[in-house]
Amino acid sequence: MTESTYRIRGETAEWEVVIGLEVHAQVTSNAKLFSGASTEFGAEPNTQVSLVDAAMPGMLPVPNRECIRQAVRTGMAIDAEINRWSRFDRKNYFYADLPQGYQISQLYHPLVGEGHLEVEVDGSLKTIGVERIHVEQDAGKLMHDQHPSMSYVDLNRSGVALMEIVSRPDMRSPAEAGAYLTKLRSILRYVGSCDGNMDQGSMRADVNVSVRKPGDELGTRTETKNVNSVRFVMQAIEHEAMRQVELLESGGTIVQETRLFNPDTGTTRSMRSKEDAHDYRYFPDPDLLPLELDEAFLEECRASLPELPDAKRARYTDAGIGAYNAGVLTAEVETARWFDALLATGANPTQAANWVTSELFGALNRTGTSIEQSSVSPAQAAELLALVADGTLSGSLAKQVFEVMLKTGQDPVAIVEERGLKQTSDTGAIEAVIAEVMAKNPNQLEQYRGGKEALFGFFVGQTMKAMGGKANPAVVNELLKKALS
C-alpha cells in the first residue's frame, strides 16, 4: 500500500485532500423496505405508493426480508462485520416529499459494521476502510419544472430501500475516490444487491471533502450531495478542494455545509448549513422490533455469494490471460458471465480473451450494443475460434465470417459452407498462384533477389489477394520462401 502523492499547490503551501464517500445504493428488490409497493423505475408519478409509504394513520411498517438479506450479502462481499443485532431509528426532519415527517434509518446500531475495499490506482494498491452499511428508506421526489409557481410531489421513491455505505476518510485524491466508487459499483452488481444505474438514481454519492497541510489535523469538511457518476464525483472533489484552498489562503474559513454539484459547470454551490446528528432528534423506532439474525440466515447469505471481481480476475490471470485483459473482462458482471460461458466450452483462455477484447468489443462499440444484446452467443464464438485453431479459417476469413454472424446470427460452420470461405492449404494451387504473381511482378522479384527483403510482404499480400484471402498464410509463407530463394 502506498500513500497518494496528490497535492494542491497553493500560493503559500502544499495542501492534502481528505475524502470520504457516503454511497446510497438502492437495494435490488421487487418491493419497498417496509411495504409491498413496487420499486420499478420509470412508472407514472404516485402510482407505486402504498398506505404505509403515504404515512396514512395506523399504518405499520413491516421489514422486507429480501432487503435485509441483500444488505447482509453486500457486507459479506467487502469482508465486513455483520451485526447479528441491529435496530431502526427515526431521523426527524421535514421535507414536502417525506410524508411521515421522519426517515426510518439506523444510526446507533447498523446492520453491517467495518469492512474494506482494495483499489488499484496508478499501479499501486490501497485499502479503503468502510465504516458501516446501514439500511434506510428513501424519500420521495419534488419536481420543480412541472408548473410555473408550484412544485409537484412524486412519492414513488418514498420507502424504497437504500443501503448507505459509509467509507472512512481514507481517500487522498480524485483518482482514489473514482477507483473506490468504480470498485464498489462492480461488487454491488456482481452480488446483485444494486443495479448500479447511477443515471437512474439507484446509486449516488455524497462527497465529503476537506483540505489540510500534510500532517496537520483534519480540516472542516463540506458534503456535496447526490452526485450521480464516477466522473462527476472526481470533478466535484477537484473543484471543492481548490475552492477550499483558495478560501483558506485568502484568510477565510471553511463552513461545514451541504453543497450541490452542477455537472454543466463542474462547480459546487452552497445548499444549506450541515446538520449534526443531534439536530435530527434520533430515537429508536417504536413500531419496529430490533433485527436479530440467526446463523442459518447468515450461512444462506454467505452461500449465495458469487465469485467476486478480484477472485475472478485472479482466476483469469492464472489461466494465462494478461492482467489488462483480465481487468477489462471482469469490470462488468455481464461481460464476465458471457466470457465464463465461452471458457466453459473449452476455448483457449488467452485466444478467447484477445478475441473478445478486440473483435467482439469492437463490433459492440461500433453498433452501440451491449454484450447481453449481442447476436453472437458464447457457443458460436467458441465455434468460430475452433475453426481458426484447426486451420479451417485464416484470421482475415474469420473476420469476414464474424461480420456475417453479427448481421444474421448464423452459426460460423454454416456460413463457411454456404459461402465457400474455407481456408485452403492445397500446396499445388498455392504454388501455381505464386508462380503467376512472380511472373506479373518481375521488377519487384529482381529487387527482392537483389537484397530488398522487405518486399517479401508484398509477395505475401499479392498471393493472398489472388486467392481471395482463402490461402493458409503459414503455407503461403513457406512456399514463397522456397520460390523466391
TrEMBL record:
It is an enzyme of class 6 (ligase). Its EC number is 6.3.5.-. SMART domains: GatB_Yqey. One of its GO terms (biological process) is translation. The keyword S-adenosyl-L-methionine does not apply. It catalyses: L-glutamyl-tRNA(Gln) + L-glutamine + ATP + H2O = L-glutaminyl-tRNA(Gln) + L-glutamate + ADP + phosphate + H(+); L-aspartyl-tRNA(Asn) + L-glutamine + ATP + H2O = L-asparaginyl-tRNA(Asn) + L-glutamate + ADP + phosphate + 2 H(+). Residues 337-484 form the Asn/Gln amidotransferase domain. GO terms for molecular function: asparaginyl-tRNA synthase (glutamine-hydrolyzing) activity; ATP binding; glutaminyl-tRNA synthase (glutamine-hydrolyzing) activity; transferase activity. Belongs to the GatB/GatE family. GatB subfamily. Allows the formation of correctly charged Asn-tRNA(Asn) or Gln-tRNA(Gln) through the transamidation of misacylated Asp-tRNA(Asn) or Glu-tRNA(Gln) in organisms which lack either or both of asparaginyl-tRNA or glutaminyl-tRNA synthetases. The reaction takes place in the presence of glutamine and ATP through an activated phospho-Asp-tRNA(Asn) or phospho-Glu-tRNA(Gln). Heterotrimer of A, B and C subunits. PANTHER family: GLUTAMYL-TRNA GLN AMIDOTRANSFERASE SUBUNIT B MITOCHONDRIAL AND PROKARYOTIC PET112-RELATED, GLUTAMYL-TRNA(GLN) AMIDOTRANSFERASE SUBUNIT B, MITOCHONDRIAL. This is Aspartyl/glutamyl-tRNA(Asn/Gln) amidotransferase subunit B. It comes from Sphingomonas guangdongensis. The lineage of its organism: Bacteria, Pseudomonadati, Pseudomonadota, Alphaproteobacteria, Sphingomonadales.
